[in-house]
Amino acid sequence: MNHPSPTVDVHAHLLLPEAEALVDGLPGLAEARALDARRNGPAALAVNGPMVRDRLPKLTDTGARLAAMDAQGVDVQLVSPSPSHYHYWTDEDTAEKLYRLVNEATAAHCSAAPDRLRGLGLVPLQHPRQAVRALDHALAQGLAGVEISSHAPGRELSDPAYEPFWSRAEDTRALLFLHPFGCTLDERLDRWYLSNTVGQPAENAVALSHLIFSGVLDRHPGLKVIAAHGGGYLPTHIGRSDHAWSARADARAGCAHPPSSYLRRLYFDSLVHDPYVLRELVRVAGADRVLLGSDFPFDMGTEDPVGALRAARLPEADFHAVRGGNAAALLRKD
């Protein structure tokens, strides 16, 4: 059987030193870094620095990226800025400068290999009034959409202030890559890298629950949201959400259908680090809603995303859909 679809990795990152230079020394940066340090703890920070330095060529140089993709058997990457560039603490003026710089720099990085690299920009979720403008700017650069975190300071994704953003994203068919950065459980997760191993999937589950239970996905059924890390804990524990929706009036007050039904309106990357969890994700979301993801090139990713997918022993058609068919259709690569 012929499978012409390219192998597409939808979870790959780009580091932009010029973005960090833009915010360097600004009021608020030191406080944000202190919060990040408290959340991660000293042991994690001691590992993170060398880990990122070792991967700088793959994070910044297009040639190194393409060589690594060749080694992995990946044809196309959807490149998103490192979530460390969100900087949701910045004021409106700085936030606009930042999203413009990041969007333009990401587009420039991908333009070196336009057949193999597609990009995502950023929007300042801390300033909802800027979100539509930032999305439009990203799309004007030729980017496929934008990357967002699981929340902004004082605002969940269910906040009504984001309604214009969801409407614009739906109308433009922009991709929204939901990738948390930082967990509000704070110092409870400051040892053993729990800030990532527990924090990231917890934040994914909370953010997706806000989109589901608030009715955002009812009001905007055409949204194209891709959840990183397989959607975190939510897909494998969605039965508890369904039970609450059935048993309690307060739980079902905001959304029209059982929560599990919305999983088939979302997309999920395959980065769950367990073939049985990946099989369950495909079962509950549908083989047409799961996309290959590696978290390139960080240490919490996988260096062999296709091998990790193959380990799930999916039916052949499902394997190829996840390997690249689904993402190729989203990116209009077919």
TrEMBL record:
A Pfam family matched in the record: Amidohydro_2
InterPro entries on file: ACMSD (IPR032465), Amidohydro-rel (IPR006680), Metal_Hydrolase (IPR032466)
Keywords: Lyase
Domain Amidohydrolase-related, first and last residues per copy: 8-332
SUPFAM superfamilies referenced in this protein's UniProt entry, alphabetically: Metallo-dependent hydrolases
Source species, domain of life: Bacteria
Matches recorded under Gene3D superfamilies: Metal-dependent hydrolases
UniProt protein name: Amidohydrolase
Annotated organism of origin: Streptomyces achromogenes
